[in-house]
Structures are given as structure tokens and as C-alpha cells.
Design brief:
The protein is α/β, with parallel strands linked by helices. The chain folds into five domains: 97 residues, Rossmann fold; 188 residues, P-loop containing nucleotide triphosphate hydrolases (Rossmann fold, 3-Layer(aba) Sandwich), CATH 3.40.50; 74 residues, Winged helix-like DNA-binding domain superfamily/Winged helix DNA-binding domain (Arc Repressor Mutant, subunit A, Orthogonal Bundle), CATH 1.10.10.10; 99 residues, no CATH class; 131 residues, no CATH class. The protein is 37% helix and 11% strand. The chain has 24 helices and 18 strands. It has a six-stranded parallel beta sheet. It has a three-stranded antiparallel beta sheet with strand order 9-11-10. Helix 6 crosses helix 17. The longest helix has 23 residues.
Length: 662
């Protein structure tokens, strides 16, 4: 809630017009809420899902760490109540420490008699798709399918809809969270309501559909992949069968990619030391703080990882925000590597327990409840292990032909690679940070290592001399289909220092499509750069600056780039400071180089940089340390009187192909 509506509610809270206020930790810790909190007469402060305060809670949210700071400021006479359904002994010990010594713990029995649980060992996604298609209509009422990734939510939901099964995806994204002007609801809110009203059979969700959502008549829960921990799993299946006397059916699908997905989330739960240091260093250099999009000029970090790093550093009080700017705090920086390692170790132990759970022969309910340290655990008599058969009569196992057919359908899917939308700073190309001429949407057949095509790519990359013909043909089919009606003249590839597999692959794709392959790009050696190198003129940049303002050591060349990305130029000249090796920017630079005409290239004549010398050999204009042109036999675009550049003679329409062949 924003604007006037938020201000009105906050004012009414301040005037104590409400008996109960429901809020989130994020809201509670906001500046406007913190201003009124000391004036409130609070009788009872309730923390629901309080396991999130604990570092060891199954879905620990860093924001809850800030909530503990709020609790510590409350008067001694304010009663505090914490509630959770999924806390084992380790979480309870941590909560007791954080709430204080005077804590009373009340525990009830955790066994849910309404749940009928079964493990399904289905290695491939196609096998799981086939099982769901065959059996979902046999399951009672409406239910939830939990997936570990957003892409699986979207793809599975789309598949079910094509099969005539009413399904909706539910995960956190700008698209699904955007409020519609007509309905006043987001697509996620609309999905929640349809599900609540039993207007759809299934909602395919990530853990975003979690705490706070209550629908008493959920008939089934399917886990498309194995969750990260027992406690997370039990909370999710606990959403089913809440009506008195009802039965609900829970199926956990165990596949071979589950472990890899979970390990990825564990390993990326915290920023690296290098990422944190880059953000800290950037703020220490800034005179008046930085806006969020300013960081990309200083930090070589992907946007998603950058946002996560900023968030974690705020939680640890290393940085703070005022308005839309971030500042370095007075708290000394020290990378909490030991703490991060302890949390990761615990998460891996929980992952091992989940693996034991999927292989156990004992009662599934008893296994879960025992892991939650409930001494009242007993054999339920209702799970597949107790029954020694399916928990629901009539369930069918899909045959090989059906699975193969669905695998072909999954192989035909592709992933969109969305173009960047903003520059880190205003430059001569755009008078705003929004990129006026963005790249087109890119395509990928699969994620690396994913079952199907992704596995082929992974195998061929390391164990074969070339990428197999099936990958060539599938790539050509997708390219031809997606580029219908568009003009394209050639295929090229981003060069590699290590092998020629990608080039061979690109040549085969070009031959399959029936257009030529052109080697238009060249890769130069170097190293990743940071802001210090940029300001010292030690970085290869294509910078949008007029040659009349050349001052090699003072020009803020970063204003024309995004995290050391090659970009096209519409200015009078392009200046190269130093050759650098790049990652994500290679792609951006390659596409922009091919789509746009380049201005003439000027290079600082620094002998120690092989890339600079090579460009000069190819015909670029050398510049001295003072920004003066170094006249050569091939250099004819010099005004003899001023020794400066004569803009009128610069061949602005020189294309990259013409330049490299000159």
C-alpha cells in the first residue's frame, strides 16, 4: 500500500483507532512506521511464523532480523507471543535466546491425521508431467503443485492448460504482481481468489504461496520436486485437509535434478565476499551515497545478485538507506563467512534428511513428526508405506510412449532472454537512464544441465568433440520459426580462447538454416574491471564523449557503459582506453556491434596493452596520454593547425564489417 491510503492508515494507527493491526516485518521497519511506533500503547505483540526470526528456520527471512531489533525496543510490560507450526528443538532454542530468558514454551502434537502421504520416484520431468496428466482428475477438490523454480511453475501450468486442466501459475514476478487498472488486482491476487472459490483445479506455485494463505478445503498437495527441508515440506502439505473430518492426499515427486536445484539455492543464499566488498567500496567512494541503479557503474555484479547483496548488507547494518539513496554506515565491515558457512552446513544437513525421507520404508508421517522433535509421533496407518500400496485407488503409472511424447514437447520449449532496460547513468546516447533502443528478446533452448537438451549440452561441452546434430537441428528449427518475417543475413558466434566448439556449432546452424556464417567478432585478453580502474584510465571502454573534451585521466568514461559492457556509439568518436575481457557484456557488445553502425575508433597508445596496439595496427587512430593524436602514415584525419580531431572527416557510417576488414 502506498501514497495517501498508506498515510491515512498510519495516521489512524497513531491515533489508536484499531484494536488489532496486522502488518509485515518490512512495513514495521519502514521509516514512517518507526516514527509512530514509540507513541503506541501496545498490550500484546504477536509474531506469527516466528521460526523466521531464527537463523535456522526453514524459510528464514533476513527482514525478521530487523523485527528482532523492534522487539528489543518495546517496553518491558509489553507481552510478546510467538507462534509457529514448524519449529524443531534447534529453532526453539534459538527463539528462546532471541526473545529473552523469561520465555514459556507450549507445544502440541504435530501429527495431522487427515493427510495421506506418498513418495513417487520419477526421475524425469516428462515422467512427472505424465503422472500428473493421468491422475490429477482423480484427486479430490482443488489443490496445489509446488515447484522449486518459477520456470517450472509457468511451464507446468501452461502444459496443464493445454491438456484442458484449469491451472494458474503463482510466483513472484513483475508481470504477475502488476496491478491491473480495471480490476484493481494483480494476476497473483486474481489466482488466489479463483483458487479460493474453487474455480480452478490447481494452482502451480513456488513457496511464495505460503505463510498467511488459508483455504480450508484443499484436497491435495503435489511437490513437483523435493523441498529443501522436512519442516518446509510439512508446512506446505499442512495447507491441505484442514476441514474437520476431511482427507487430503500429498504426493512428493523425487527426481534426479532436485538435489542440484536445492544446492544452487543454498550456495547462492548469501553474497560472496567479493560482492560485498564491491558494494562497500562503491559507497565509500561516493560523496553523497548512491541510488540503486548507480551501483552498476561501480560493481561488476549481476543486477539480481547486486540487489541481494545490498539487501543483506542493510540487514547487517553495514549500509543504510535514506530516501532513494544508500550510504555506508559507521559499522566496521567484516565478512561474516563463518556464520554463512554454519547456515549452509545446516541447510545441507536438512537436505540429507530429505533424501533419507524419500528412501525410508517406515511410516512417512512418523518420520516427519519425529524430525520435528515431537515425542508423540506414531504410525499413521494412512501413508503409502503403512498401506504398502497407493494412498488412493485407481492411480495410474504412465507408459514409456507417453513419457517420450511429453519429453519431445518439453524439448520444444525455449527460454526468453530479456534485454536490459536501463543504463546505469544518463549518457550522450539517451537523455534518460532508459535504453531507447534495447536489444530484441533472445532465445535459449534450455538451461545448462537440465534434463533433456540441457543434459546434451553439458555432456557435449566436456565429453565430445562437437555439439551433436540434434542440437543443431533443434536450434535451426526454433530460429526459423521465431524469425519468420524478419530479415537476417548471417550467423556469427562469440569467439573463445579455449576451443572452437561454439564456432563449429554456429557454422552448422547457419548451414542448416541456409544462410552464411561470418566471423565478425574478435575477443581480446584482459581482466575484469572496477571503478578504480575506470577512473585511472586503465580499462577498455567504448565511451560516448566528444573528442574535443578529451582528457585521458579525468574523463568519467563510465557514464557511457553498463558494468564494463561494450555498447554502440552515436557520438562523434569512440575512445578505447584498454582491452578487457568481459562476461555478460560480451553478449551485449556482440549484438549491439552487429545491429548498429560504429563511429571511428581512437585508442590510447599504451604499449603495455596488446589489445590497444592491435587495434592501432588495424587502423584505429592512436592518442597520446594527453589526448593528442599521434600522427601516423595511415592517419589522415588530423587538423594540422590544432592537432585535434576534425569531426567532419570522421567516417561515421563505417560499419563493423568494413572497419575490421580495412
Amino acid at each position: 500500500m502506498k501514497g495517501k491510503a498508506r498515510a491515512l492508515i498510519l495516521e489512524e494507527i497513531r491515533k489508536q483507532k484499531y484494536d488489532v493491526v496486522f502488518t509485515t516485518p518490512e512495513t514495521l521497519y519502514s521509516e514512517d512506521m518507526k516514527r509512530i511506533l514509540p507513541d503506541l500503547n501496545i498490550d500484546l505483540f504477536v509474531v506469527d511464523e516466528c521460526h523466521c526470526i531464527s537463523d535456522w528456520g526453514h524459510d528464514f527471512r533476513p527482514e525478521y532480523g530487523e523485527l528482532y531489533d523492534v522487539l528489543s525496543t518495546l517496553p518491558d510490560n509489553v507481552s510478546v507471543l510467538g507462534t509457529t507450526a514448524t519449529a524443531n528443538d534447534r529453532v526453539l532454542r534459538d527463539l528462546k535466546k532471541q526473545f529473552g530468558s523469561n520465555v514459556y514454551i507450549s507445544r502440541g502434537a504435530l501429527t495431522r491425521e487427515s493427510l495421506h502421504i506418498q513418495i513417487l520416484h520419477l526421475d524425469t520431468k516428462a515422467g512427472r508431467y505424465a503422472w500428473i496428466r493421468r491422475n490429477i482428475d482423480k484427486l479430490p477438490g482443488s489443490g496445489i503443485i509446488y515447484c522449486l523454480t518459477q520456470r517450472d511453475c509457468q511451464n507446468l501450468s501452461d502444459f496443464l492448460c493445454r491438456e484442458g486442466i484449469s491451472a494458474r501459475p503463482y510466483y513472484s514476478s513483475d508481470y504477475l504482481n502488476k496491478i491491473d487498472d480495471l480490476t484493481g488486482m494483480s494476476l497473483n491476487e486474481e489466482t488466489e481468489q479463483l483458487f479460493l472459490d474453487n474455480q480452478i483445479k490447481v494452482i502451480v506455485a513456488t513457496i511464495k504461496l505460503g505463510m498467511g494463505y488459508d483455504k480450508s478445503d484443499i484436497g491435495f498437495v503435489i511437490h513437483f520436486q523435493r523441498p529443501n527441508s522436512i519442516v518446509a515440506y510439512y508446512q506446505q502439505i499442512g495447507r491441505a485437509g484442514r476441514q474437520e473430518g476431511s482427507n487430503a492426499y500429498c504426493f512428493l515427486m523425487a527426481g534426479k535434478e532436485d538435489r542440484a536445484i536445492s544446492e544452487y539455492f543454498i550456495e547462492n543464499a548469501f553474497p560472496t565476499e567479493q560482492q560485498e566488498q564491491q558494494v562497500i567500496s562503491a559507497l565509500e567512494q561516493a560523496e553523497d551515497g548512491l541510488r540503486k541503479y548507480d551501483f552498476s557503474s561501480y560493481c561488476n555484479i549481476s543486477p539480481k545478485a547486486l540487489e541481494h547483496t545490498i539487501h543483506i548488507l542493510r540487514i547487517h547494518k553495514m549500509i543504510y538507506r535514506e530516501g532513494n539513496r544508500y550510504y555506508r554506515s559507521m559499522v566496521p565491515y567484516k565478512y561474516p563467512g563463518v556464520y554463512y558457512s554454519e547456515v549452509k552446513k545446516t541447510k545441507y544437513e536438512e537436505l540429507d534428511v530429505m533424501n533419507q525421507y524419500t528412501e525410508t520404508k517406515e511410516c512417512l508421517s512418523r518420520f516427519i513428526v519425529s524430525e520435528l522433535n515431537d515425542d508423540t509421533a506414531y504410525n499413521c496407518g494412512k501413508c503409502a508405506n503403512c498401506l504398502r500400496k497407493d494412498v488412493l485407488p485407481g492411480l495410474e503409472i504412465p507408459d514409456i510412449d507417453e513419457i517420450s511424447e511429453i519429453q519431445e514437447e518439453l524439448n520444444a520449449l525455449y527460454i526468453e532472454i530479456l534485454p536490459r532496460k536501463k543504463w546505469p547513468e544518463i549518457n550522450t546516447l539517451d537523455d534518460k537512464t532508459k535504453i531507447s533502443i534495447p536489444n530484441e528478446v533472445g532465445l535459449a533452448l534450455s538451461r545448462y544441465g537440465e534434463v533433456g537438451i540441457g543434459e546434451m549440452v553439458k555432456f557435449d561441452k566436456y565429453a565430445a568433440n562437437y555439439f551433436r546434430e540434434e542440437l543443431v537441428k533443434r536450434s535451426a528449427i526454433v530460429i526459423i520459426e521465431k524469425l519468420k518475417g524478419k530479415n537476417y543475413d548471417a550467423v556469427t558466434s562469440v569467439p573463445s580462447f579455449t576451443n572452437s566448439k561454439v564456432e563449429k556449432f554456429a557454422r552448422q546452424v547457419a548451414e542448416e538454416i541456409g544462410i552464411p556464417y561470418l566471423q565478425l567478432l574478435e575477443k581480446v585478453p584482459g581482466q575484469q574491471a572496477n571503478m578504480k580502474n575506470i577512473l585511472n584510465g586503465k580499462l577498455l571502454l567504448y565511451s560516448h564523449i566528444s573528442p574535443y573534451t578529451l582528457n585521458t585521466r579525468n574523463v568519467f568514461v563510465a557514464a557511457a557503459m553498463e558494468r564494463n559492457k561494450f555498447i554502440y556509439s552515436s557520438s562523434s568518436a569512440t575512445v578505447v582506453v584498454r582491452s578487457e575481457k568481459d562476461k555478460g557484456g560480451t553478449w551485449t557488445g556482440a549484438t549491439e556491434s552487429l545491429r548498429h553502425k560504429w563511429a571511428y575508433i581512437y585508442v590510447w597508445d599504451q604499449k603495455e596493452y596488446a589489445g590497444n596496439q592491435k587495434l592501432i595496427e588495424m587502423g584505429a587512430v592512436p592518442l597520446s596520454d594527453e589526448g593528442k593524436i599521434v600522427k601516423t602514415k595511415t592517419n589522415t584525419i588530423v587538423d594540422e593547425k590544432s592537432s585535434s580531431l576534425d569531426i567532419k572527416q570522421v567516417p561515421h557510417q563505417t560499419s563493423i564489417e568494413e572497419y575490421l576488414n580495412s
